[in-house]
């Protein structure tokens, strides 16, 4: 079974599937080792790793190159966050096959205007395109894929934009009609009430996707019991963990005037070399170097 087939089967199986964010191949490998089912190729994390806002500042090529690198480093499916699709339906038609060829098993596209503003920013500029326009982008993505199992996930930001449940449901159903294989419903409320109300009202046939960044008390067991959610994405925890760990280590080194105290608490250089795939390279050397 291909990774694309595995992802499609997993999100429709009735059992909750999990994806962890990554911003480079190393973070993706760590997520795979931890037991997550898929990798979320996060635009937010990639932007943060370049120290620029998550506002379509990085080029499509930069994002695509990183997705290709991540897909080559892990054996689990990669879900690529392509923001608004880098343009209109024409752009989407060209972009989707490139992500497919790069090794992604799915794309997630949101119904904001270009350039976007990150969803969880306080007082962010949350402007949505017309429903019909986004339907065209979803239909273009579905038509452009070469593998029928490649997953197209439509993300509606109606709740983020404060447009209410009726608008969110209307848009989600319209996107399902246009060919979306799943619907990502997003919220920045600090409790899950808004998302739970949407899930309860959801009459569609395709599974839902959640990103519970703002309402972390909603556990996987809770989500599984809802019965309509096929995938939960932990959307920015890799970059947040990295920033927190680096900040603490750097501060301690400065405070202690050296690395003697902190060094023994860090992963060893040997462990980093293992993660780099050194054993595989040594096998190639043994087999082919003459």
Total count of helical runs of at least 4 residues: 13
Termini separation: 37 Å
From the alpha-carbon coordinates, what is the Rg to the nearest angstrom? 20 Å
User: What percentage of residues falls in helices of 4 or more residues?
Assistant: 40-55%
CATH class call of the largest domain: Alpha Beta
What structural class should be given to the helix and strand makeup? alpha/beta
Overall pLDDT: 96
Family: Belongs to the isocitrate lyase/PEP mutase superfamily. PEP mutase family.
Keywords: Hydrolase, Pyruvate
Organism: Bordetella genomosp. 8
Protein name: Phosphonopyruvate hydrolase
Structure description:
- 48% of the residues lie in helices and 13% in strands.
- It is of the alpha/beta class and 290 residues long.
- Strands 1-2-3-4-5-6-7-8 form an 8-stranded parallel barrel, surrounded by 10 helices.
- Strand 1 (17-22), helix 2 and strand 2 (38-41) form a beta-alpha-beta unit.
- Helix 2 crosses helix 4 and helix 6 runs parallel beside helix 7 (164-178).
- The chain is globular, with a radius of gyration of 20 Å.
Topology record:
Elements: H1 3-11, E1 17-22, H2 25-34, E2 38-41, H3 43-49, H4 60-73, E3 78-81, H5 89-101, E4 106-110, H6 131-144, E5 151-156, H7 164-178, E6 182-185, H8 193-201, E7 208-210, H9 220-226, E8 229-234, H10 237-256, H11 260-263, H12 269-275, H13 278-288
Parallel strand pairs: 1-2, 1-8, 2-3, 3-4, 4-5, 5-6, 6-7, 7-8
Helix pairs in contact: 2-4, 5-6, 6-7
GO molecular function: hydrolase activity
Organism: Bordetella genomosp. 8
Protein name: Phosphonopyruvate hydrolase
